[in-house]
Amino acid sequence: MLEEDGYGWWLRRIRQCAERFDILRIDHFRGLSEYYAIPEGKDPKEGCWQHSAGLRFLADVRGILRAEGFGMKLLAEDLGHLDAGVKNLLKLSGLPGMDIWQFSAEDMRHMSDNEPEKAAHRAFYTGTHDNNTLLGFLKEKDGGEHSSGNGSPEMGSTVEALAVIRRIYESPAALAMLQVQDVLMLGEEARMNVPGIPEGNWTWKMPGETVKEAFREASSRLGWFRALAERTGRK
Q: Which of 220, 102, 219 is nearest to 168 (CA)?
């Protein structure tokens, strides 16, 4: 049991992260509330839900970060089905959660317009490694028929994608997060992973030796992002 040695393995791993990163996202945050345990040699249906480390573990993590002078922030991945226990743990921990535009566009708009103090304690994402790219998602949603007014579905989807990114940057959210595929307006061909599909995932990588070499529009695109970040106070 990891608890028996004070979560030593996890604390060592988190310490290494703190030496390298400014922010650490705790994936599957609900696992700190409850986890499904299957007895060794048994079928999954013979398992049961067990209470997890929760606040005790997070207190130990914060203790390590504070004692050793690390400034790394923590972010909770609170997506999917969340019961009252997970929601209470998130509230008690004080950690910010996250929202994905492809799942929660309306909720993110509502928070930005009507509950800015709530949005200020959230991270807004265009998508994650498990989603289509933003451009691929919009093309799929629009059925290839979206147009910018010049008769080009491709240009229309790009304009809409840039508008989504602008809204996320302009929102009160504490953090705006984009995949590099969304920065460069890449389509479904650059998707990282399709959950539930066992083969063909995690094959995409940035082509070329530099971004400018790989993408003809990189300079103008990155200039647009720089101006947007400066205007909205994003770093």
A: 102
Question: Which is the catalytic residue, given 115, 130, 142, 154?
Answer: 130
Alpha helices, DSSP H, located in the chain: 8-18, 55-67, 84-93, 101-114, 116-119, 134-142, 153-170, 180-183, 211-214, 218-232
Q: Are residues 77 and 114 in the same domain?
A: no
Active site residue 99: no
Instruction: Please indicate whether residue 152 or residue 45 has the higher confidence score (pLDDT).
Output: 45
146 shares its domain with 168: yes
Domain that holds residue 62: 1-95
User: Which tens digit of pLDDT belongs to each residue from 159-205?
Assistant: 999 999 999 999 999 999 999 999 999 999 999 999 999 999 999 99
Q: Judge if 9 and 72 occupy the same domain.
A: yes
Residues 135, 30 share a domain: no
* Cα angle for residues 168, 173, 174 (degrees, 5° grid): 125
pLDDT, tens digit, 9 for 90 and up, residues 107-152 = 999 999 999 999 999 999 999 999 999 999 999 887 755 544 455 5
Q: How many distinct structural domains can be found in the chain?
A: 2
On whether both 90 and 109 belong to a single domain, the answer is no
- 22 catalytic, yes or no? no
Note if 154 is an active site residue. no
Q: Is residue 64 predicted with pLDDT exceeding 70?
A: yes
Q: What is the pTM of this model?
A: 0.88
Question: Which pLDDT belongs to residue 154?
Answer: 67
